[in-house]
Amino acid sequence: MRRITRIATVGIASAALALSATACGGKKSSDSTASSSESAGSSKSAAIAYDIGGRGDQSFNDAAFAGLEKAEKELKVKGAEAEPTEGESEADKVQRLTELARKGNNPVIGVGFAYAPAIKKVAEKFPKTTFGLIDDTSVTAPNIANLVFNEEQGSYLAGVAAAKASKTGTVGFIGGVEVPLIKKFEAGFTQGVKDTNPNAKVLSAYLTQPPDFSGFAKPDLGKATAKGQLDGGADVIYSAAGLAGSGAIEATANAGKWAIGVDSDQYNQAGLSKYKDKILTSVTKDVPDAVYNLIKSVEDGKPQTGEIRYGLDKNGVGLADSNPAYKSMAEITAAVEKAKADIIAKKITVKTAP
Question: What is the tens place of the pLDDT at every residue in 332-351?
Answer without folding.
Answer: 999 999 999 999 999 999 99
